[in-house]
Sequence to fold (1152 residues):
Amino acid sequence: MGKKLTELSIKHPKLLLAFALLLTALSLIKVGDIQVDTDPENMLGADEPVRVFHNEVKERFALSDMLVVGVVNEENPDGVFNTETLRKVYELTEGAKLIDGVVVQDLMAPSTVDDILQAGMGSVSFKYLMDEPPKTREEALHIRDRIMANPMLYGTLVSEDGKAVAIYVPIERKDMAHRVSVELKKLVDHEGKGAEEYHITGLPVAEDTFGVEMFQQMAISAPLAGMVVFLLMLFFFQKLVLVISPMMVAMLTVAITMGTLISTGNTVHIMSSMIPIFLMPIAVVDSVHILSVFFDRYQHYRNRAAALREVMNELFMPMFYTSVTTMVGFASLAMTPIPPVQVFGLFVALGVGVAWLFTVLLVPAYILLFIPEKSLDNFGQASGKKGKGEGRSPLAKILRVSGASTQQRAKLYIALTMGVVALSVFGITKIEINDNPVKWFVDDHPIRVADKVLNEHFGGTYGAYLVLEPADSAGSLKGALGEVKQYFNSAAAEAKSPEALLAARDMASFSEDLAAEAEAKGDSDPAPYFKALDEELSKKFEGVEGDNYDLLDELDLMSEGLENIRLSTHIFKDPEVLRYVDDFQKTLAKDPVVGKSNSLADMVKKVYMELLEGNPDEFRIPDTSAAVAQSILSYQSSHDPDDLWHLVTPDYRNLNIWVQLKSGDNRDMEEVVTDVDKYFAANPPPGGLTHKWAGLTYLNTVWQERMVSGMLSSLLGSFLTVLILMALLFRSLLWGVLSMIPLSVTIAFTYGLIGLLGKDYDMPVAVLSSLTLGLSIDFAIHYIERARETVAERGSWYEAAREMAEAPARAISRNAIVIALGFLPLLFANLVPYQTVGLFLAAIMAISGVATLVILPSLIKVLAPFLFKKEMGRFEAK
Amino acid sequence: MAYKSKGFMIMKNIKSLGMALLLLLAFLPALSFAMDVDEIVNRANLASYYGGDDGKARVKMVIKNDKGDERTREFTILRLDKEDGGDQFFYLYFHKPGDVAKTVFMVHKKVGGDDDRWLYLPALDLVKRIAASDKRTSFVGSNFFYEDVSGRQVDDDTHSLLEETDDAYILMNVPKDPDSVEFSKYKLWIDKKTFLPVKAEYEDKQGKLYRVVEALKFGEFDGVPTVTESRVKDLVSGGETVLTFSEIAYGVGLEESLFTERYLRKPPRKYIRR
Fold:
């Protein structure tokens, strides 16, 4: 196959090049249909139960994703509570109301929230906390005192030190977050300079802004990396026209892959946007191998076609296998349970295939078409003398010395390797699995700064929702309808008139029918059933003669009885349940990550206290459910009665505890989840309530968990696949195992370093494991292929080892250096995942390069008697 | 606005005069055109809030959110006028939901002054005065405001006649103190025959329509044209509240003593029963 392809390339270079360009053009036709998706929530499939529940909770409690705008005044002794700052806060709020996509009725700011207060003479009043900007210092300080007197507000709306005030800006959809934040910034700029600092943060902004900046970063990073790779190749090969070919292969590969991805209707996600960055080094690697060998051999032949035939003959199999293994590494990502990662893996695999094809076909074609033989006179090992030219470079000298050293002290190197592995394993045990989209930005990014400042001041800018609901709703509906039936049966027994008896009997049988219906449908919501019962009972009233007061009274009594059963389904009006919630929140507040939590219990306590003259002793859950209901009724006489439905559903069967976290680190969220589980296990809630989490901060922990376990199994799977492939390639299990050693050491050491350096194992790091596998096997394949060929030629490993330290070692080193340095510019990106990729690529290249050139020769030296039986046979046959 | 609208444009004691006036208007149609804005406003005010000398009704209030969740409240409303167009008393007694049953809301409406308002919460055995400042807060969690219950003071707005159609006067009303309310102005449709307001459209400070109050059904009780169903829609939240009136009666003989703090704890069974 290899020969045929090489001949094809040598005979029809123009045709091939034209074909490649046409193919690329074709794949780019529909590139205008690009659909960008920057929502990390999509790391989970749309039908993923946790995500379905998250969206259901948002719907149930009418919750919106929120941006947090913080206004901080450290200069004024009164903090933000001065007329100037509050006027700015007021105007900022008014401006925010006009931004398209802002959910105005849920906007939370001093001028939009109600204050419930004593207004003298036993009266209570709902007033906007700040219906207009204060005119005097006294007025400003009064606003502070009112907020501080409201446990629902302090820590949430205003920092406890009074230096910061927050505006919570809810948005209709998460993908508006960046735009809204930009418009908010405009409003801030409009206010002009003052003593105030402004900060905008919140997970939705971080996630959406990351999406925006990611594309900007792509537009800078990918070309920059390409440029550095290009310059390095120019340095090594000294020939401009020649090094254009790997660049061409890389660019065509990226174009075709991305073009196909977009044209097939896949969205460009955070993951898939990284494809060019991943493909570029992979596409360049093989071309560099070709150029390297061509560089070393050309002067031998002084004929391009002949030299290329030799080069391709030597490299075809290793290149084929390195590409296949890389493809396997990435394609294995399709096994992870994360859709964007699957797409990413499959398309990188596709790209690697394309890169391979283009490398074997186009690089030779390019050399034949664009590089006249005359211009190659001084190319490569100049004037053909051994030990001169390329062989005299410092790199060559180092490689020669180190190559010799591995042969003299093989066992020492093996022992050293084992030491490194041990250290790496120790490092791996130290790995902290953690992620936080806000930390995808560099330290001095405004979002990171805002995150830090605001979480110092407030209860927390990260939100999670803990939802309590009855464990067996269907069962309790059945129970309630059974109770209704029983009630009407006893009402029938006590009926004082034949009409009442009839009505009660009708109602009893009606409720029996409903119970059957509920069971058949598996319904759990009591509301429609009680509505039907109420309507049925209303009909009985209609039939009564106008002055038959006795009957009306009897029916009224039944109506009351029915109503009481209906209300008994309102579990979150039950003082015992609310007290449980209150106690739970008190424990939750002790968690250092939890800044605050707000629930119906807080609201009821506050209103109840204010109804009772603001007496602090009455800051408690009232004793009866009627008192709870009437406190709630009082609260609903405010400007925003619907705020209640963010805390509890209208059927009072679902409760939402809004938990504000100071950190969005998955590790911290997970800890809270564990602590809460423990609390509920140790303190079983009344009535068998279940608890379940929702909210972006929680969702992130779920897909992270998927990612980590998914990556691990995909890594193990591809490791085994690659091992089998290697055993097949070398037709020897021993060689197969040997070839996996540099790769295993590289992976162990890279991840060991992560653990030792204390860097979090986050999304980018997880994805990079597949790249590590795919790239670090490459050098071993090239090395072993060449080593076996050389032994077959020379007749002994002793001699072959010296030759291996020459051209093959140089090819590997050149490659490692080009890629490692080429991607270092990524370290200057202002998005952390890009820095991680840059660092990783450098580490993978450096470590696997060294591992291949040191560990392999050392091991081969020790194992040589078992390894080269076939080659020795071939040598002797010659 | 249209909520407690059991009005009658011509009071019983001047009924004959009214008939004469109607006849006159029939012969001189041009005159009706000349009807002064203040006259329309006053008549509408009387029609919607002063029907009969007193009145009672049982009201079913269905509050719906944008998702279609429904909550129902039921109360009896009693009203006594001191004089037509003048001070009034309101007494609202809640029947349902059961856990707020026996809650009472009482208003002493004072034309040209601040109303006195009380809330009695039986489970807390507590009578609370409600401060005058929060007229435009929600009435018991519905999309109606407290002010809708007892009626906005006529003098709080300046009125102008925008248009006159075959059956309605269309008025524009602009608040005299814009900071005290959340709207910038509202358009009011007044039925020419009954002078009952049939629709009100409220615009926010940006001039966007955000709230619509409509009378949906009408009837006549004891000779008083009355709205029997009305609805308010909140276009921002997508919620709405529908009021249905039944057991409507005028001239039931309510006494002033009933509208005192003493009766908050001791509701007059005679009037609030079915």
